[in-house]
Design goal:
Elements (H helix, E strand, L loop, with lengths): L4 H10 L12 H13 L5 H25 L8 H12 L3 H14 L4 H8 L4 H11 L5 H13 L3 H16 L7 H7 L12 E5 L6 E9 L5 E9 L3 E10 L1 H13 L5 E4 L1 H14 L7 H14 L45 H16 L6 H19 L3 H20 L3 H14 L10 H24 L9
Antiparallel strand pairs: 1-2, 1-5, 2-3, 3-4
Helix pairs in contact: 1-2, 2-3, 3-4, 3-5, 5-6, 5-7, 7-9, 8-9, 12-13, 14-15, 14-18, 15-18, 16-17
Length: 471
């Protein structure tokens, strides 16, 4: 019985049959299938937009893979290739296969190098890689599969590779008998080195967030380093536990799946840099538990810190100048409504005197015109935005915070928000740019002053005073 188009598209997106390449659509086909599902009412408009943005992010990663691996005269360093591989490995499995298929189809000449660079990190990923090679009916693909067969110890993966080799042979690719391939297998192959992991949470309203670093132990297990950092105060909390590899990886998945605080993967070396930077911000290290713990763990952490200051990870997927720094349409102010940063405010010390100025304007018996009062209040907000963000250290702190939030937006599929955050960060990187002209910064300052004033009035109302103010 012939399946309907609706049944085909729904099944194509939901089934991930590893090793059967024709059942997994490419990224362009995924976009068409999503559109068809939405038109047929199989998915909501919101779900369609969310999944479409995920596919667009996958397309950007696919292009980046080609850019990093695709040129023989490329000056890309091994570090760049490692970062893009780690990003690929952290991508959702249902999109990763499509990315690999499209990337190798765009540049067949880089296919072997790209797939080799990703092999050996995870068995499920390895099966995806084998499936992609199964689509290349060439002697190079067969030779690469034979090399992998000789290197792997997993029975399941070996069976999968043999099945793919049989398929290639049936398509006319010359392959020696499998009995001869077994003779090539080494008696023992050293296991791949354990991988380090890094994770970060979103920032809270005060600029605090969690940083995790999972490092392989010696000779086995993992060190799990957990820190709480603050934009200004530095390292607030630091703890370290040594656990088995199984528990460490289970803990990592548990952290990422929590719904209370969004958490995403990030380069482990960058996490080590964040912890070191936070330690250096501590003003008084004496009798500070976090500082004392860092000094005990210094070698464990700083072995991973790059020699030069690393770029924020968002710039591995988004060009710094891709969106410009201007915001003539006021798009950036909508970012403050996003759940990840709703409630962000400036510190009380930064806005206290502007809150007093605003209160004087609101309660002034001289300014009776509501129009004039509104103008004065607007002027107060503009003055506050310009003066607060004229300080280099303040601009630097907020630039970094927005760049790191852009990475979290990108990793969670909010690509538009990631680009908006990068746009604000670019504005802050220009000392000559007027902060008051960027709606996000203006609205941030306004919300902070209004909140401070509301708290001040509430406190005054709760504390009875013998002074009678004129009305």
């Amino acid at each position: 019985m012939k399946r309907s188009k609706e049944a085909y598209t729904h099944k194509t997106l939901k089934e991930q049959d590893r090793g059967v390449p024709h059942k997994v659509p490419g990224l362009a086909e995924r976009q068409k299938i999503l559109l068809e599902l939405w038109r047929q009412g199989e998915i909501t408009a919101q779900e369609y937009e969310q999944r479409k943005m995920r596919v667009k992010a996958a397309e950007a990663l696919c292009k980046k893979l080609v850019d990093v691996y695709g040129h023989a005269d490329s000056t890309s360093e091994d570090r760049d290739r490692q970062l893009v591989r780690e990003e690929l490995l952290s991508t959702d499995p249902d999109l990763r296969y499509s990315i690999l298929v499209d990337a190798t189809a765009m540049h067949p000449d880089i296919a072997m190098e790209l797939l080799e660079g990703c092999f050996g990190t995870d068995e499920d990923i390895d099966k995806d890689l084998v499936g992609v090679l199964g689509q290349h009916t060439s002697s190079q693909a067969a030779e690469k599969l034979i090399q992998w067969l000789a290197r792997t110890q997993s029975k399941s993966l070996r069976k999968h590779i043999k099945k793919t080799l049989h398929s290639l042979r049936s398509k006319g690719v010359p392959i020696p008998p499998l009995e001869e391939l077994e003779d090539r297998r080494p008696v023992w192959t050293p296991p791949p080195a354990p991988k380090s992991y890094g994770l970060v949470s979103i920032f809270d309203h005060a600029g605090r967030r969690f940083v995790w670093l999972l490092r392989p132990g010696r000779p086995k297990g993992y060190f799990v380093v957990t820190g709480v950092t603050h934009d200004h105060e530095g390292l607030l909390v630091l703890e370290c536990y040594q656990v088995s590899s199984k528990k460490a990886l289970s803990y990592r998945e548990e952290i990422k799946s929590t719904r209370d605080v969004p958490v995403v993967d990030i380069d482990a070396a960058y996490c080590a840099f964040l912890l070191k930077e936070a330690y250096e911000k501590i003003s008084n290290k004496e009798k500070n538990p976090a500082a004392e713990m860092y000094e005990l763990l210094r070698d464990l952490i700083e072995e991973m810190v790059p020699n030069s200051r690393p770029d924020t990870p968002i710039y591995t997927v988004v060009s710094p100048g891709a969106d410009g720094a201007e915001d003539s349409l006021g798009e950036t102010k909508h970012l403050l409504r996003h759940d990840f940063i709703r409630g962000w405010t400036l510190s009380n010390d930064e806005v206290a005197r502007y809150a007093e100025q605003l209160q004087e304007i609101q309660e002034s018996p001289i300014i009776t015109s509501q129009h004039l009062k509104k103008e004065r209040m607007e002027s107060c907000y503009l003055q506050a935005a310009r003066e607060i963000f004229s300080a280099g250290p303040v601009r630097a702190v907020w630039k970094r915070r927005l760049e790191e939030m852009a990475w979290i937006f990108y990793q969670t599929g909010s690509v538009r928000e990631a680009h908006l955050a990068v746009r604000i960060a670019r504005h802050l990187s220009d000392p000559s740019a007027d902060p008051a002209r960027l709606p996000f910064l203006f609205e941030l300052v306004k919300a902070s002053i209004d909140e401070q004033l509301a708290l001040k009035k509430k406190k005054e109302a709760e504390e009875p005073s013998l002074i009678v103010k004129p009305r």
